[in-house]
């Protein structure tokens, strides 16, 4: 039995910047590798991955490239979930300690045989380059230039990033490997016999080290078997199941050795030797044929030959677990037609030492086999775990269901230029829960939110945030409480002022809705005339702005205003205006729209305002007018402050979009389409929630909404709806389509979840999960027996939080 302690395994010369210097004369430039999340790539992206890595590596001279991927079982730290609200605390408690695989990936690029390196470093570790020989310094300069070009090629790939890592990170990674992934920092002996033994753990290497143990064709990608049975075409690498999908502590090593002409000569010599001795062993003839075929392809395609080695080092708590893991990993290779070698004793020791960053030259050459660079790259895994963003809305990754933040606001506009969105899902698929999850967390981030709904889906959320919320169950007997004619004193009443002109245009559109005459709304001359009259009103009136005040101004001063502004009376029919719009004055059928109240003060104080419009659902004209007023409120009260984020939500929008006032041709859909177009330019957003986009009217307004939708959320639905989404949003990316169709909910497993497809225009798409703690699940109920019981408790004087806690206690 051989042994080595951590200090011996770690024996390197030193680290400078992102360079590791070895006593054997090697200089390794080390980079952190970030790979895209699981199932991010389609076939085109995978081919592009291989092509760019091929281009990045093929021009390296005498060099060693080592990719090392650490997969460590870890417990989720709930403290990363920010916020101290009831729901955030519940979420933190629910996920704290959740097991997942933490991944650290690096690539080192080593130039070897620098004869003056050790002497120069010992003389002056901080300025060792100054003491190198001219020949060594020239080699380093040439190598770093080739390396920079290669890294630029790799970083051009979507979802992939190579960044230099610092001295502390390098030391930590090397120490982690040399200490056999023991994370407590205690130095200990590592024993090598049949297996590796350290600190009560048992480990084993499985290696790929013989070209004759490979299949006739090494595949670049294969279908993801985990999604079989669904209408999907999702792809993983041939050996992806040795990576993020293998739930155990393990390290995957890949080492490439490049030599200028040595390998071509070695391959030719090997073929000759196999032919010479084939009479003694028939398998040697087969091996010679395989090698000769490879040589012909290499010559024909001008491919780069390299020495390649791959291994997987894994650890278990006992012999039984170790054998099970061995069988599982061997099965992954066997399915792909690859035979693996399981070393022991001296070979095990040599593998462990030779797979340490900076010590690859210690690895026995028998562990390498000759192949083309293109074939060797197909051993690469493609995916990492979902890293998530620094901020955003919490979802869960698709493998271990640990929480991740998705930045749906994208303030820096890395993904989308704006953030208007649509949520699409069939009944029961979870669209309301997804919307509530978004709204609840935006509230935690101090975003102003206005919801227009028909059905009280957001009522319970208001109860959980009473200090932030204001719920308005509107009917015609109550004042709306919003005065869109109010003008901030800081705004210059000058048509050349952008903010003022925008306000006048918004009020013009709103008054045209009040007017209810289709011909007037479609006549540009009438629109220009009305805009001029509204401007005149603000020029002549100094205070107490309101629609009734504007009405009186037109009645008393209208003829003079038309004369002063050279407006043909035919372009502004005062009689029609005064007759129709009096319905919005005291005593009129729509007087409540313009009646003063204290509600408007709530807009400045509250972050979450819900307009429940079920009681006026049968009056499409009134709803359309309210939509226009709400938009003006958002623009003037929220978006006027560029530091304030604001979102307008329309729940169950498809049915609402069909509502139309036949007399005036006023409809809600055109108002919402206008909001989509306008809000995309502001520090705000608009969300609509529908069962299918095909439910929306087939008209220019729908096309306007779709063209101004930057973020798309789709939950599990029917093939028909998927097809409608693909057609209407003109989704061409095949992997985005496959990812969307791969969605599936599971409400009966240990950790029930729904799945959500999130697409940021054409750039990025992800499939994530949404798992709720019990408290959130209850708070987000919008119907059914559970919702009824919670409602009964709140009606009896309990807070919603207390009602949830009582329900949990009684439901055990």
Put the structure in a nutshell.
Helix content is 40%, strand content 19%. The relative contact order is 0.11.
What can you see in these coordinates?
- With 812 residues, the chain is α+β, with helices and mostly antiparallel strands.
- It has three domains: 378 residues, no CATH class; 265 residues, P-loop containing nucleotide triphosphate hydrolases (Rossmann fold, 3-Layer(aba) Sandwich), CATH 3.40.50.300; 112 residues, no CATH class.
- Helix content is 40%, strand content 19%.
- The strands form five sheets. Strands 1, 2, 3, 4, 5, 6, 7, 8, 9, 10, 13, 14 and 15 form a 13-stranded antiparallel β-sheet that branches. Strands 20-21-19-22-25-18-26-27-28 form a nine-stranded mixed β-sheet, sandwiched between helices.
- The chain is elongated, with a radius of gyration of 34 Å.
Beta-strand content bin: 15-25%
Oligomeric state:
single chain
Unreliable stretches (pLDDT < 50, length at least 5) are none
Radius of gyration: 34 Å
DSSP strand count: 28
Q: What structural class results from the helix and strand content? A: alpha+beta
The major pleated sheet works out as: 13 strands, antiparallel
Overall pLDDT score:
86
User: Could you say how many structural domains there are in total?
Assistant: 3
* Count of alpha and pi helical runs: 29
Describe the global form: elongated
Q: Helical content, roughly?
A: 40-55%
How far apart lie the N and C ends? 55 Å
């Amino acid at each position: 039995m051989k042994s080595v302690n951590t200090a011996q395994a770690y024996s390197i010369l030193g680290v400078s910047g992102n360079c590791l210097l070895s006593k054997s004369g090697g200089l390794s430039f080390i980079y952190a590798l970030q790979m895209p999340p699981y199932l991010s790539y389609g076939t085109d992206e995978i081919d592009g991955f291989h092509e760019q890595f091929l281009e990045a590596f093929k021009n390296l001279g005498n060099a060693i490239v080592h990719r090392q991927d650490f997969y460590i079982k870890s417990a989720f730290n709930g403290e990363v979930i920010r916020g101290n609200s009831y729901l955030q605390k519940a979420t933190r408690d629910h996920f704290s300690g959740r097991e997942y695989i933490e991944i650290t990936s690096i690539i080192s690029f080593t130039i070897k045989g620098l004869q003056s390196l050790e002497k120069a470093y010992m003389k002056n570790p901080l300025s060792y380059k100054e003491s190198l020989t001219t020949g060594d310094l020239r080699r380093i300069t040439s190598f770093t230039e080739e390396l920079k070009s290669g890294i630029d090629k790799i970083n051009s790939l979507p979802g992939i990033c190579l960044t230099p890592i610092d001295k502390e990170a390098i030391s930590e990674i090397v120490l982690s490997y040399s200490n056999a992934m023991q994370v407590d920092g205690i130095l200990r002996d590592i024993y090598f016999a049949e297996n590796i033994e350290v600190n009560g753990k048992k480990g084993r290497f499985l290696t790929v080290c013989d070209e004759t143990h490979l299949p006739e064709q090494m595949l670049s990608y294969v279908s993801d078997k985990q999604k079989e049975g669904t209408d999907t075409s999702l792809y993983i690498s041939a050996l992806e199941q040795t990576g993020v999908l293998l739930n155990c502590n393990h390290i995957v090593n890949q080492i490439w050795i490049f030599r200028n002409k040595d390998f071509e000569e070695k391959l030719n010599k090997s073929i000759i030797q196999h032919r010479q001795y084939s009479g003694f062993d028939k398998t040697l003839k087969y091996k010679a044929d395989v090698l000769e075929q490879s040589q012909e392809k290499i010559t024909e395609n001008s491919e780069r030959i390299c020495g390649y080695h791959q291994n997987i080092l894994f650890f278990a708590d006992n012999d039984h677990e170790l054998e099970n893991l061995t069988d599982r990993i061997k099965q992954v290779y066997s399915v792909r037609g690859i035979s693996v070698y399981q070393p022991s004793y001296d070979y095990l020791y040599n593998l462990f030492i030779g797979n340490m960053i900076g010590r690859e030259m210690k690895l026995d050459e028998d562990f390498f086999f000759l192949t083309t660079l293109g074939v060797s790259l197909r051993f690469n895994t493609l995916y990492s775990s979902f890293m998530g963003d620094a901020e955003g809305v919490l979802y869960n990754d698709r493998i271990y269901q640990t929480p991740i933040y998705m930045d749906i606001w994208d303030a820096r506009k890395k993904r989308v230029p704006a953030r208007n969105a649509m949520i699409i899902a069939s009944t029961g698929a979870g669209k309301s829960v997804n919307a509530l999850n978004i709204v609840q967390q935006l509230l935690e981030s101090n975003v102003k939110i206005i919801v227009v709904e028909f059905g009280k889906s957001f009522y319970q959320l208001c109860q959980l945030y009473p200090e932030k919320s204001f719920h308005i169950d509107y009917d015609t007997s109550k004042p709306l409480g919003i005065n869109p004619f109010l003008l901030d004193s800081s705004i210059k009443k000058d048509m050349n002022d952008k903010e003022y002109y925008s306000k006048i245009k918004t009020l013009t559109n709103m008054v045209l809705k009040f007017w209810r005459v289709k011909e007037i709304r479609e006549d540009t001359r009438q629109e220009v005339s009305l805009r001029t009259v509204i401007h005149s009103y603000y020029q002549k009136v100094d205070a107490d702005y309101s629609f009734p005040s504007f009405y009186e101004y037109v009645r008393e001063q209208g003829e003079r205003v038309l004369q002063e502004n050279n407006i043909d009376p035919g372009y502004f029919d005062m009689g029609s205006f005064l007759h129709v719009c009096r319905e919005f004055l005291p005593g009129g059928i729509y007087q409540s729209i313009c009646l003063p109240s204290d509600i408007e003060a709530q807009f400045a104080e509250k972050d979450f305002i819900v307009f429940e419009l079920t009681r006026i659902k049968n009056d499409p004209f009134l709803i359309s007018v309210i939509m226009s007023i709400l938009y003006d409120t958002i623009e003037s009260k929220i978006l006027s402050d560029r530091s304030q984020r604001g979102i307008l939500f329309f729940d169950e929008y498809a049915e609402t979009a069909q509502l139309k006032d036949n007399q005036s041709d006023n409809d809600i859909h055109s108002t919402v389409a206008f909001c989509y177009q306008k809000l995309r330019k502001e520090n705000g957003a608009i969300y609509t929630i529908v069962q299918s986009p095909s439910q929306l009217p087939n008209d220019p307004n729908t096309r306007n909404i779709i063209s101004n939708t930057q973020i798309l959320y789709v939950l599990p639905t029917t093939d028909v709806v998927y097809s409608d989404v693909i057609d209407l949003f003109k989704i061409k990316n095949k992997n985005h389509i496959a990812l969307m169709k791969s969605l599936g909910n599971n409400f009966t497993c240990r950790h029930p979840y729904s799945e959500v497809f999130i697409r940021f225009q054409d750039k990025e798409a992800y499939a994530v999960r949404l798992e709720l703690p019990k408290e959130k699940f209850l708070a987000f109920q919008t119907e059914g027996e559970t919702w009824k019981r919670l409602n009964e408790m709140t009606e009896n004087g309990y807070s919603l939080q207390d009602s949830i806690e009582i329900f949990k206690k009684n439901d055990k």
